[in-house]
Design brief:
438 residues, alpha/beta, Alkaline Phosphatase, subunit A, eight-stranded mixed beta sheet, three-stranded mixed beta sheet, 11 helices, 14% strand, globular
Length: 438
Amino acid sequence: MGGEQQDCGSPEHGLHRRRFLEGLTAGAISTFSWSGLFSNPVFAETAKKKQKRCILLWLCGGPSQFETWDPKPGTPTSGPFGSIPTSIPGVHFSELMPKCASIAHKTAVIRSMKTSAREHSQAINLLQRGHKPRPPFTRPTLGSVLSRQLGQLGSALPNFILLDPCPEGNEFKGFKAGNWAGWLGAEYAPVRTGGEFGIPHVNKLDSITTGDHEAREELRSFFSKKFENDTRSEAASSHNAVYERVKGLMSCAHLFDLERLPRKDRERYGPGTFGQHTLLARTLVEEGAPFVMVANGMPWDCHVFNHEIYQMVVPDLDNILFQLHTDLEQRGMLEDTLVVAMGEFGRTPWLNAARGRDHYPNAWSLSMFGSGIAQGAVVGTTDKLGIDVTGQAHNEQNLFATIFSALDIDPHGEFNIPALPNFHHVEDHSEPIREVLA
C-alpha cells in the first residue's frame, strides 16, 4: 500500500475500496448509485459487519504504570501495592488489576513508551495527533483521521464520537484538544456528548410539522449547496457537513440513551461515568460507529495521595477493560474492533512531598487488544526502578503506525492537500511496533 495518495475531504473517498468490493462479493448489489448505496439493507449490514472499528479509552491525566501494567514490587518506587501473576507465564500486573491479569493472554501491553511532552496540553496534542506541532498547519487528531478512513457514506451515526463527562470543560475537567479535525475540516470533527449521556437539541419543535421541517431543510440545503458550488468555499462545505450531521443525529439520538440498555449490563460496567460511557461506546460501535473515544476527566493526575486514589480508580479500570473485552469477544466483534487504553504520559517513579506521582513521559505503559493485535504480547521493558526504558523505546509515531497497521490502514499513506506540502498518516517513515501486531 506504501505511499498511496488519498484526496483530502472528498466524499467519494469516504468508502474504503476494500469494503466496497467486499460488499459486491456478498451479492448485495446489482445496480447502485453513490447516494443510494447504503439504502440497500443487505449491503449496509454486510458493510457494517466488515467495518473496522476503534475504541480509545483515554485515561486523562496520565495513569501510573507502577499501579497498572509495569509494577516494581519490593523496590523504593513500587508503593504499597504488590504484583500478581497473569495468565502469561512470568508476566505480572499490579495486584489492583486481577481481572486484566486473568485475560492477559488475550491482550497486549507496551511497556516501552518514551515521549517528550511533560505538560498536559502539549502531551495531549502529541498523543492525539501523533506528531509535534508544525505551524501553521494543524494536524488532525487520530479520531478525525480514523473517522475519515473507516467511516461510511450516508451513515446517520457520527463517524467520530467523543464521550466526555464534562463536554464543555477545560483540560482539567473535560478533554481538550483544540482544533480536532485540523486540515480535514469540520466534517471530521467529533460529536461530543457526556454528562447525562444524551444528545441535546435534536428534537423537532412541536410547532413545526414534519413536512414543514423537511421543506425548510431542503430549501436551506439548496441555497447552501449553491453557494458552496459558486464560491468553491471550504468553509461553506464544512458548514453544510455540520447540518447533515445534525440531520443524521435526529434519526439516531436514541442510540445514546443508556436507559434503553439492560440494567444487568449497566451494573456490570459499574456505576461510574467512565464505565457507563464505555458500555455506550460498545453499543455505538456495534451499531456501526467507526471511532468512539471515551475520556474520564482527570482522576489519574494524582499529584497528591496517589496510592489512596489509585485504590479506587485502578480496580474500576480493571473491571471496565475486562467487561469490554468479554462483550466484544462474545459478540464476535473482537476481530474487527481495536481497543486502546492509554493516557498522555505516565507517572514518576518517586513520590513528591504530597505523596503523589508527577508527570513522567520517559518510561510508561499502555494496553491494546482486538483487531490486528497479537494476543499475549508484552513489548518492552524498563529498568529495575522503572526510571527508563531498557532496549528499544517507542514514541508517539511508532504508536500511531501500530494503530493504523492494526486497522489495515497504510501508516505511510499521504494526505493530498492542495497547495500544501505533503503530509502522511505517520511522518518520518516511522515503523509500527511489530511485536504487538498479529
